[in-house]
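Weekly modeling sync, notes
Attendees: S.R. (lead), two postdocs, one rotation student

Agenda item 3: backlog of single-chain predictions. S.R. asked that every request posted to the team notebook include the full sequence so nobody has to chase files. The rotation student volunteered to paste the first one in as an example of the format we agreed on. Action items at the bottom.

Example entry:
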Amino acid sequence: MTKILIVEDDKGIVENLTEFLTNEGFSIASASGQKKALEFVEQEHFDLVLLDISIADGNGFAVCSAIKADYNIPIIFLTASGDEYSTVTGFNLGADDYIAKPFRPRELVSRIKNILRLTGSAGSVTVLGDVFVDTVKGTAKKNGQELYLSALEYRLLLAFINHRGAILSRTQLLEMIWDIAGEFVNDNTLTVYIKRLREKIEDDPQNPQIIKTVRGLGYRVD
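Predicted structure, as returned to the notebook:
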C-alpha cells in the first residue's frame, strides 16, 4: 500500500485529507511541524510527502531540502502560498509538484498518482537506511550502486522487508528461504547468508544497523 506523509498544521485539512486519501486506498500519517516530519521520515518508509510551506515549527522549504538531501522521496507542495517566488523556490529545492489551495480532491489524487508513476515510487520501493529495494523490478541499490544479490540473499532480504518490525526466529527464516534454490538450507548455511547479506547492505557489517540481532530470539529489521 502506498504510504503518504502529510505535513500540515491545519487540523481540519489533515482530517479531511486523511479521510479522503484513506478511502482512495492510501496509508496516511501526518505531522504538524518540521521536527516531527523529519523524525517520521527517518523512522518510517514513505512513498510520497504532501508538504505545506507554513507549518508549526520551521518551514516547508527546510523540510523539503532536508528530505531531498537524504532520501529519494517525491514531494508535492500543498500550500496557500501560490506566488511565483514560492513556486520557483519549491521546485529549486527538488519538489516534484506544487498545488495551491484551495484544491479539488480528485485533482490531488490524480497528481499524486502521476508523480508516483513518473518517479517509479508507486509503493514498490522499500528504503532500509541507504539501501533502496524495488520489489517490482527485483533490484537493490546502495548509495545509487546496484547490489548483486544471489537468489537466496534476495529471498532473505524480502523476508525481512515483508515482516518489517517483527522478530524472525532462525526457524522462521529457514522456512521462508529453504526452497528457493531447490535444496535444503541448514542452520549453518543461514548464518553464512545473513553474514553475506550484511556485508552487502550494512556500512559496518560488524555493527549492523539494518539487520539487527535480537539475542536469544532471532533477527529484526526496523
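Discussion: group reviewed the output briefly. Residues 162 and 221 are 10 Å apart (CA to CA).
Action items: rotation student to repeat for the remaining queue; S.R. to check formatting next week.
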